[in-house]
Amino acid sequence: MDARQTTRVDLPMPTLVLASTSTYRQQLLARLQVPFRCERPGVDEDAVKRAGGTPLAIVQQLARAKALAVAGRCPDALVVGSDQAAVVDGTILDKPGTVAAAHGQLRRLAGRSHTLLTAVAVAHPHGCVEFVDTTTLAMRPLHDAEIERYVAKDQPLDCAGSYKIESLGITLFDRIDSGDHTAIVGLPLLALARVLRELGLALP
Question: Is residue 67 in a domain?
Fold first, then answer.
C-alpha cells in the first residue's frame, strides 16, 4: 500500500440554521443549495438601537446577538445572523412601515448617495466569525410623483431605505458600488459561502 494514501473519513455535514424569518434572507441562503432551517432569534432590536452607538457598531451587535441567541438553542450548528442598515448623514433609516414614512425616506435619499451596511455573524461550536459588507448607492433625483408611483407599485414598507433593489427599486438609482450585489438584498453570499466552507460546510 502506498504510504501516501490516507483513509477518507466522511464527517457529517454541520447543521445550518438561519437566525431570521426574513423571506429575503431565506431566498438568498437557499441559493447555496444546502439544507437549512430558520429560527426566530427573539432579539430586542429597538433596545440595542436605543442604547446608542455608531450605525456600524449597531448592525454588528445585532447580527452577533441574533446568531448567538439561536446558537444557545442549537449549540452544534452553524448559525447565521445578519442585520442591515441604510445610513445617511450618520443616522440609520429604519424600515418605514407606512406609506408616508416611505415617501419621506425616499425624499431624503433622492439625488444623493447613502451607505448600506450588512453585518453577518456565523456562530459555531468554537466561536463566532463576523464580517460587514459596505455598499454605496447613488439615488437619482426624484419628483414626488415618481416617489408616490414607486411606493404604490413596489410596496417597500419592510425595507430599510424604502426601496427593493431586486425589484422595481433598481430604477431609482444612477450608480451602485458594491463588491457583492446579494448584500443589498440582505445577505452577502460571496463572503458567507467562503466562511461556511472554512467551517466545514460542503459547497461547490
Answer: yes
Asked if pLDDT for residue 19 goes beyond 70, the answer is yes
Residue 182 lies in a domain: yes
Q: pLDDT value at position 12?
A: 60
Terminal Cα distance for the chain, rounded: 31
Could you tell me if residue 1 is inside a domain?
no
43 touches 65 (CB < 8 A): yes
* Residue 83 known to be catalytic: yes
Mean local confidence (pLDDT), 166-181: 95
SS3 107: helix
How far apart are the C-alpha atoms of 156 and 88, rounded to whole Å? 18
How many Å apart are CA 137 and CA 198, to the nearest integer?
A: 31
How many separate domains does the chain show? 1
Average pLDDT for 154-181: 94
Domain with residue 120: its CATH number is 3.90.950.10
Mean pLDDT, the chain, whole residue set? 91
Q: Is residue 2 part of a domain?
A: no
**Which position among 83, 133, 144, 158 bears the catalytic label?**
83
Q: How far is CA 192 from the centre of its chain?
A: 11
Backbone angles phi, psi at 82, to 5 degrees: -150, 150
